[in-house]
Amino acid sequence: MPKAQTILDRKGVDVATASRDSSVLDAAKLMNERRIGAVVVTDAEHVVGIFTERDILCRVVAESVDASKILVGDVMTSPMACCRRETPLSECRAIMTQKRIRHLPVVEDDVLYGIISSGDLLATEVVDQQSTIEYLHQYLYGRS
Prior knowledge:
144 residues; 20% strand; CBS-domain; 6 helices; 3-stranded mixed sheet
């Protein structure tokens, strides 16, 4: 059964992070530069939350707050849902569906190992389905 580590092995472990003392504007610029929808929020070496597009929309834009004058730590989501490297992808999918989130940090013993997005899960499913289709095609029609 594929686990969270399966996705991290394929995509890598580079995770965009922001300090809880960063301005929302700086975090949003980072997200735009990297074309990502979330950053993991850290305080020194500890993971303390996640800051997402939804946080910007609901807690900054909708509240008419100046993004340059508010800190990420004031509007981040905390506590956040996360998983471990050995968490089965089916469980990751269930967590994301139940909590209606698109990003799931992979954290163990307060160490950030990576992040899984709903797009990563979808891409993994597509690869698995393509492999199954190829196997069934070979079974039915023989190798070409």
